[in-house]
Design goal:
By secondary structure, this protein is mostly beta strands. It has 2 domains: about 180 residues, Vaccinia Virus protein VP39 (Rossmann fold, 3-Layer(aba) Sandwich); about 100 residues, Lipocalin (Beta Barrel). Helices cover about 15% and strands about 40% of the residues. It contains 4 helices and 16 strands. The strands form 2 sheets. Strands 3-2-1-4-5-7-6-16 form an 8-stranded mixed sheet. An 8-stranded antiparallel β-barrel has the order 8-9-10-11-12-13-14-15. Strand 14 and strand 15 form a beta hairpin. The longest helix has 13 residues. Bound molecules: S-adenosylmethionine. S-adenosylmethionine binds next to helix 2 and strand 2.
Length: about 325
């Protein structure tokens, strides 16, 4: 077992000092070992709706509790990686003891080299700079892959869901509090689209040019050649929602689109709100020019966390 220098996040209360005898390992690599409290593990797995068809990979798996709970409680399969051979043995022994070693195993590997291609869920309890370093590889995974992280965010990639738990026994990070973040790997919807929807006897011709930053959509659009403002555009995996607004004041019309992006096709429904009148119709659109998703960091942007959310007692 090779011990390398531990990096530490300035200002964060030292994690390792408070570990009990059963957790006497320090972990090896880029961050020390601290187990995620079981109540937090349970909430993370519930938030990600982990089920029997999932394949979960825990990056820096410690005693294996995240993958072991996913396998035991929800019938998921998966593996964890760590560099600490003592923790890896504890994790594999627990999996065997719990009778789930065929579905959960733990291997000695640097998490920055792990092949993530089988994952439907990726979990981390790592420092933010480690999450951000992993970010491009995670964003390249299949759309809809969920990422769940304990305590630390992914920089400017805003979480799709989050929770804040009161965990009185937690003495590290922000003592007594655990933050949970979740993201869906977004599909690529960037580029130019042409589509239509038929509402009663009226056909709407749609020309949309989506810009995409992480899961957020903006850009320009025309409905029947008239400018429409794109609002509330976002992806959750392949699921896309956006509004196209035309007119103003009493003549304003809001077109609420909900659909699925499958390669170069979007299909779904549009609800058209004009005054008190609401109509619904199916729509489809085809991509005519591919765009590039912006996943770069703005040099002086503040990291996007959701700290300060109400602490919920459990
Ligand atoms: C904070 S602990 C989290 C443990 C577990 N995921 C949990 O939530 O209970 C981080 C773990 O990452 C491991 N680790 C740190 N750097 C690593 C690296 N480069 N590759 C693999 N594991 C690493 C440490 O040994 C430690 O066990």
């Amino acid at each position: 077992m090779k011990r390398v220098g531990l990096k530490w996040l300035a200002g964060v209360v030292v994690w390792g000092a408070c570990l009990g005898a059963a957790q006497a390992q320090e972990g090896v690599g880029d961050v020390v070992y601290v187990p995620t409290p079981q109540i937090v593990v349970d909430t993370m797995l519930k938030m990600a709706k982990v089920g029997a068809s999932d394949y979960i990979i825990d990056l820096g798996s410690g005693d294996g509790r995240i993958v072991i709970t996913a396998a035991k409680q929800y019938g998921a399969r998966g593996f964890g990686v760590d560099l600490d051979t003592v923790l890896l043995k504890i994790a594999n022994d627990t999996a065997r003891r719990e009778g789930i070693a065929d579905r959960a195993h733990f291997v000695e590997e640097n998490l920055f080299k792990t092949d993530l291609s089988k994952a439907t869920v990726v979990s981390t309890y790592l420092l933010p700079e480690m999450n951000e370093k992993l970010r491009p590889r995670i964003l390249a995974l299949k759309p809809g892959t969920r990422v769940i992280a304990h305590d630390y965010h992914m920089g400017e990639w805003r979480p799709d869901d989050n929770d804040t738990l009161s965990v009185p026994e937690k003495t590290v990070g922000n003592p007594g509090v655990s933050y949970i973040y979740m993201w869906y790997v977004p599909a690529n919807a960037a580029g130019k689209w042409k589509g239509s929807a038929t509402v009663g006897r009226q056909t709407l011709a749609l020309d949309i040019d989506f810009g995409q930053r992480f899961q957020m959509l903006s850009g320009k659009a025309l409905i029947n050649q008239k400018p429409a403002e794109i609002m509330s555009g976002r992806l959750r995996g392949e699921d896309v929602t956006f509004w196209l607004n035309t007119g103003s004041g009493a003549a304003s019309v809001r077109h609420e689109f909900n659909g699925k992006v499958t390669g170069d096709t979007i299909s779904g429904t549009v609800r058209i709100h004009a005054g008190k009148n609401v109509e619904q119709a199916p729509f489809t659109a085809k991509r005519t020019a591919q765009g590039k998703v912006d996943i770069t960091s703005a040099p002086d942007a503040a990291p996007v966390g959701v700290r300060g959310a109400t602490v919920a007692s459990r």
